[in-house]
Write a structure and sequence with these properties.
There is one protein chain. Helices cover 38% and strands 15% of the residues. The chain is of the alpha/beta class. It has two domains: 232 residues, Type I PLP-dependent aspartate aminotransferase-like (Major domain) (Aspartate Aminotransferase, domain 2); 139 residues, Aspartate Aminotransferase, domain 1. It has a nine-stranded mixed sheet, with helices on both faces. Strands 10-12-16-13 form a four-stranded antiparallel sheet. Strand 14 and strand 15 form a beta hairpin. It is globular.
Length: 388
């Protein structure tokens, strides 16, 4: 019998529509720059349909989207930016690249940015910037966070790279703050291969974003540049793929939701694990990736579980992200808990060890779904029995 091929953590879902639009863009000869029809359509339709915003500026990826947003929002060298300690490194890296100084905020027991820690981090009259990251597609408590932001007049950037279409209190994530950013990397709910976007309801900010994104060229004088800008543009070819994915967005969401529900039915409660748990009834999750949360008693076995799943069962996984504060480039930055500045972010460290991502392929066949469920059950039982 042939060896089973590796079941990947993520694969994009493409149809004839993506190919048709890609070829359409190719044949138009507008393959780069901002003049292509697909770029304009993608910016307009994505910002309104997914981000709940009036304006969108497409760019090369989700990381430069954050960089671009901070520059347009006037982050100056040394300005503190409150952002979560637990999350993907792009949030901190792009902030540093833009000149900001990260202040690393602890999470609560659910893994979401802790509003109490945000409040504890604020230096009245000095703190101006806050980045909220909707990690693993679970919205933060934007009602509580925006109340704090309003009280202290903070500029809020929402990182929605993992939260396409997620809702908080019935409102689309991305539409709460001054601006929001998205990623269209290959493992996202919808993809352009590489790509990102900044969305906003502020028309002046949108003009500023587009200006900086295209080398800060004067709109009135070609090749005359009034300040330092960036070449952060998205290819029209990739925007064409994005237009197709947008048309299929509801189907892509439904397929992921169905897969995650199958995982929940098969795995929830087994050895006390949880799949994509809902921590707040007032939110709608984005089904970005299927996340498996272990009980604290099994977290020490996380890496071993993942290794066995790959070696013996040919199932790929990814551990949860590391906290920023444990990685060399970011150890120097201040960490904050609800008790105040300079405290160890024990919540972030705990959450980073508590689980892993399992295969989330929208077009996954039922045999592979069953194999993933049964294999995880087997490995978890083995680990639990080994502790007894």
């Amino acid at each position: 019998m042939a060896a089973r091929s590796l079941i990947q953590v993520a694969e994009p879902s493409f149809t004839q529509l993506e190919e048709d639009y890609l070829l359409e863009a190719w044949r138009s000869t507008f393959i780069s720059g901002a003049a292509g029809h697909h770029i304009q359509r993608f910016e307009s339709e994505f910002s309104s349909k997914i981000a709940g915003c009036k304006h969108g500026v497409a760019c090369a990826n989700g990381t430069v989207a954050i960089h671009l947003a901070w520059k347009a929002l006037n982050v100056q060298p040394g300005d503190e930016v409150l952002l979560p300690d637990w999350g993907y490194v792009a949030s901190a890296a792009a902030t540093v690249a833009a000149g900001g100084t990260p202040v690393l905020i602890d999470c609560d027991e659910t893994g979401r940015m802790d509003p109490a820690a945000i409040r504890a981090a604020i230096v009245p009259g000095s703190t101006k910037y806050l980045m909220v990251v909707h990690l693993y597609g679970h919205p933060c408590d934007m009602i509580a966070i925006m109340a704090i932001a309003k009280e202290f007049q903070l500029i809020v950037l929402e990182d929605c790279a993992e939260a396409h279409g997620a809702l908080c209190n019935g409102q689309v994530c991305g539409s709460f703050g001054n601006a929001c950013t998205f990623s269209f990397f290959a493992n996202k709910v919808m993809t352009t291969g590489e790509g990102g976007m900044v969305c906003t309801n502020d028309e002046e900010l949108a003009i500023r974003l587009k200006f900086l994104c295209t080398h800060a060229m004067s709109p009135d004088q070609h090749f005359y540049h009034t300040e330092i800008g960036f070449n952060f543009r998205l290819s029209n070819l990739l925007a064409a793929v994005g237009c197709a994915q947008l048309e299929r967005f509801d189907d892509l969401i439904q397929k992921r939701n169905v897969l995650i529900e199958q995982y929940q039915q098969g795995l929830n409660g087994h050895c006390n694990v949880r799949i994509n748990p809902l921590f707040d009834d007032n939110v709608t999750l984005c089904p970005w990736l299927a996340t498996l949360y272990l009980p604290d008693s099994m977290s020490a076995h996380r890496d071993e579980i993942c290794a066995v799943l790959k070696q013996e069962y040919h199932i790929d996984t990814r551990p949860f992200f590391y906290p920023m504060s444990v990685m060399p480039p970011y150890r120097k930055y201040v960490t904050v808990t609800k008790e105040g500045r300079g405290r160890e972010t024990v919540g972030a460290k705990r959450m980073s060890t508590l689980g892993f991502v399992i295969p989330t392929v929208p077009d996954m066949v039922k045999e592979d779904v069953a194999h993933v469920v049964n294999s995880i059950k087997s490995v978890l039982s083995r680990m639990k029995n080994g502790d007894e």
